[in-house]
Write a structure and sequence with these properties.
Length: about 850
């Protein structure tokens, strides 16, 4: 497969603009040969084109589905070419998606484009012909509200308007209307029904291109009000599509420029991060009847009226909002919190699902879906605290305090005798069905409930409710050890995923345990044991984390909640593993999600994949918003360890830098009104951090990079002056911490080291449809004198792997592998798995004791 990644970064410098305070100037592009079965999309806040790379599309202007099975035909030399037979290359930009069709005498580039704020879409056709060619567009009308809504009367009319050169759709009450056509169109066929025959096909041709180059457009517009509104939009889009395309490109560029920008050596991770920010913001939908919020994702609906997960989903949006906060997109998080507050139930429960047609049916009264889950409620409190803390918007905490408190009152109403929030009788947690049920409460749900206590305590403090804050903090302090006791399975040396109705542990080890790890709620030693289990090939695949072990008797690789791989799980795991200093499995999981965004539906991460084969499940939503968030969250919160408290003017930077990264940059970091840029450089004997700031106000930085346990810190200085530091060892690494106030301009921090050492492993995806083949580093252990490092690893029998070595001069010998040096001078440890060999032990022996 050929995959072209185009990304140009430019961090601008100047007298008024420090190099690291500004985002990227880029032209994001992904391109590869067409996979006809693969999903593609072009979306705006009010409309979407959804289809496949063969060029078959459906069109939506929310909450209306306009048409389905839209496709092109080419007429040349008296021949009729279905467009999908000539589809050659797919190219994706944030604002558009293009398919290149090629014959021996013409090419046509079909560019799908949805203006950001318009109720319509544009298809631009760039033709290059050596002989005459004409394009025909065909489709089937599907003029209906999104499920479960229905247009009154159940029918709609369609006719050809020669003045508009377009088909006009209208319902019987003239409330909804759409127009589909082209300034150069001529009618070819129209749907009909008689007693003797019928056809659902509608088509028009765009006029002959005799020779040379020409551009034609097809325009779709709709209105939820009347036919006049649709016609006005149709004419506007037809006349100004080039301007709208440029404005959409500028919209995405401005978004990338104002959110956190990175420049890292891992270019696949770099590109995936940039696309994931785009993919997340493309989940923002403005429904004219419900308001603005985040939908969960996109997939074609076919003959039905539900485009994948293009509903407003509470928990999906809230997990995504944590990534938006991490990337400094506070505007979208606030929009989402406003949306969920609007539909919060009277008892405080936060909505789980809101159909885009909810205003046309008694959605919140007669349907079981709106409040089906219970986990959206604690997540609402957690995200509100995260938003207020990171943005410094204390006024919002005061405005929304009653919503947060009502959410807590509902959460408290679900507590059992031990103080754990229950699922039975109140709504599902993560697991919605399958053999892992029934449960009384999941560790996932109880972890969220516990973190919600801490979050609400902090919110209470910010809104001057000190007594409430102290009471909630005391509850948290009582519940945290109970959580660690109730769910800990001594027999499994891992946390159980749930308790049953009799409070008995269901001691299956599950990736769901990494959610309380994300928030640092689990005891360190117990979390270590759980991660040891999760890091094995029974749980971790090359494309992410299974929900349970492949050895579990209930496991099914296609089981939606009992075997499959969710990028959501993978992001939870990576963030939690970084929190507990397990950088090897964390980075592998992070890269798995990142690579998924560069495969499949280009620029997007799918919803769910098989547990056994690198293949999405048949019903997977290919453009899933929280899956994209699980590239951003584990990168910014996990690998970089970024934590902003704008209310306290404090910023923490505690990275677990891969050993083969010698430098990287981060820009557009906001701490209140202060904007920071970080420039990190590592050598064998030092770590340097240049910090540039603009903006007014106080700001302090805690820099706490992870080091090898062998490394010795011999000093630290800021701008050439010695400064105090302290080190904190963990089981796998140590962190050296320096505190410094950030004054205007440039601050230079340097940490001096000796005996540093590191290993790195680069995760790759297998060929599509193949099984997992990568190396897993299950655990690592050091001798007391730090003169020997032992790795327990698992892999595929017969395969060979390499670990890149940082500062190889420290090594005296290696057991279980051999050191090799490539032509560039890079040293690696190469290990070979023999047939029938799944597990190995590698030991690195060093030249001297580090202590």
């Amino acid at each position: 497969m050929l995959l072209l990644l185009t990304l140009t970064l430019s961090f601008h410098s100047g007298a008024q603009e420090p190099p690291m305070s500004v985002g990227m100037k880029s032209e994001l592009e992904l391109s590869r040969p067409v996979r006809p079965w693969e999903f593609l999309s072009a979306t705006g806040t009010r409309a979407a084109l959804l289809g496949n790379e063969g060029g078959h599309l459906e069109a939506w202007v929310y909450p209306l589905k306009i048409l389905r099975d839209f496709h092109l035909r080419f007429h040349s030399r008296g021949l009729d070419f279905p467009a999908e037979s000539l589809a050659r290359t797919i190219t994706v930009h944030p604002e558009s998606t293009s398919i290149l069709y090629s014959s021996d005498n013409f090419t046509v580039r079909e560019t799908l484009f949805v203006p950001i704020h318009e109720p319509g879409a544009i298809i631009q056709l760039d033709i290059d012909a050596a002989e005459p060619v004409e394009i025909e567009a065909e489709f089937q009308r599907d003029f209906q509200l999104e499920w479960p809504g229905a247009i009154a009367g159940g029918s709609a009319s369609l006719y050809w308007d020669q003045n508009l050169r377009a088909f006009v759709f209208a319902d019987e009450l003239n409330r909804f209307a759409a127009v589909v056509g082209s300034p150069s169109a001529d009618l070819i066929s129209q749907e009909y029904w008689t007693n003797y025959s019928a056809s659902q096909q509608n088509s028009f041709r765009l006029g002959v291109t005799n020779k040379g180059r020409e551009t034609k457009v097809i325009v779709l517009a709709a209105s939820p009000k009347d036919s006049t509104g649709a016609e006005v939009t149709y004419r506007r889009l037809s006349a100004s599509y080039t301007t709208l395309l440029r404005e959409s490109s500028e919209y995405y560029q401005a978004y990338l420029d104002r959110t956190v920008a990175i420049s890292v050596p891992d270019k696949e991770l770099q590109t995936a991060y940039d696309w994931s920010r785009v993919s997340m913001i493309q989940g923002l939908v403005d429904n004219p009847f419900l308001g603005s919020g985040l939908v969960a994702g996109y997939r074609t609906s076919g003959d039905f009226q539900r485009p994948g997960f293009a509903w407003f989903f509470g928990r999906d949006a809230l997990w995504t909002s944590l990534a938006l906060d991490a990337a400094d997109d506070f505007v979208t998080t606030r929009t989402e919190l406003d949306f969920l507050s609007k539909y919060q139930r009277d008892d405080g429960k936060i909505p789980h699902e809101v159909s885009q047609a909810a205003s046309f049916v008694p959605w919140f009264k007669d349907y079981p879906y709106p409040y089906a889950s219970v986990d959206a409620t604690p997540l609402f409190i957690i995200v509100m605290n995260d938003y207020v803390t990171a943005s410094g918007d204390v006024a919002y905490a005061k405005e929304k305090w009653s919503n947060a408190w009502k959410a807590y009152e509902f959460l408290r109403s679900t507590y059992d005798a031990q103080g754990f929030p229950q699922n039975i009788g109140f709504g599902h947690g993560w697991v919605e069905g399958g053999p892992l049920l029934p449960v009384k409460t999941e560790l996932y749900q109880s972890g969220l409930g516990l973190e919600a206590l801490r979050a609400l305590s902090h919110l209470a403090l910010m809104v001057d409710k000190k007594d409430v804050s102290e009471e909630l903090q005391q509850q948290f302090d009582r519940q945290q050890p109970l959580l660690n006791k109730a769910f800990w399975s001594r027999a499994k040396n891992a946390f159980a995923y749930a308790l049953d109705k009799d409070d008995k542990q269901l001691d299956t080890t599950s990736v769901l345990a990494t959610v309380p790890m994300w928030f640092g709620l689990l005891d360190g030693a117990k979390a270590e044991g759980t991660i040891d289990e999760l890091a094995t090939s029974d749980h971790q695949t090359d494309w992410g984390m299974r929900i349970i072990s492949a050895k579990d008797p209930r496991y099914n690789p296609g089981g939606y909640h009992y075997g499959s791989v969710w990028p959501l799980f993978t992001g939870w795991a990576a963030t939690g593993e970084y929190r507990y200093h397990r950088a090897f499995p964390a980075y592998s999981n992070l890269r798995s999600n990142a690579l998924l965004s560069l495969d499949g539906a280009l620029g997007h991460v799918t919803e769910v994949l098989s547990g056994d084969y690198y293949q999405p499940l048949l019903g997977s939503s290919p453009h899933q918003i929280w899956s994209a968030a699980m590239v951003v969250n584990p990168l910014l919160r996990g690998l970089f360890g970024l934590d902003v408290d704008a209310t306290a003017h404090r910023f923490t930077f505690a990275p677990h830098v891969p050993a083969n990264w010698t430098s990287f940059r981060i820009g557009n970091l906001h701490v209140g009104s202060v904007v920071l840029g970080l420039d990190y450089v590592r050598t064998a004997d030092s770590i340097s951090l240049d910090v540039r700031r603009t903006g007014s106000g106080d700001c302090s930085l805690e820099f706490s990079p992870a080091l090898s346990l062998r490394a010795q810190v011999v000093g630290a200085e800021i701008d050439g002056h010695p400064v105090a530091f302290h080190t904190q060892p963990n089981s796998e690494d140590q962190h050296v911490t320096v505190q410094l106030p950030i004054s205007s301009g440039l601050s230079k921090l340097r940490i001096h080291l000796r005996n540093d050492f590191g290993l790195s492993l680069t995760q790759e995806l297998p060929p599509l449809g193949e099984s997992s083949q990568g190396l897993r580093i299950v655990s690592e252990s050091w001798t007391t004198g730090r003169d020997r490092l032992t790795l327990e690893v698992s892999g595929t029998p017969g395969k060979q792997y390499e670990l890149a070595v940082w500062n190889p001069g420290e090594i005296a010998s290696v057991d279980g592998a051999r050191l090799i040096t490539d032509s560039a001078g890079t040293v690696s440890a190469r290990l070979q798995f023999s047939e029938g060999d799944h597990a190995r032990r590698i030991a690195f022996n060093f030249k001297n004791r580090a202590r």
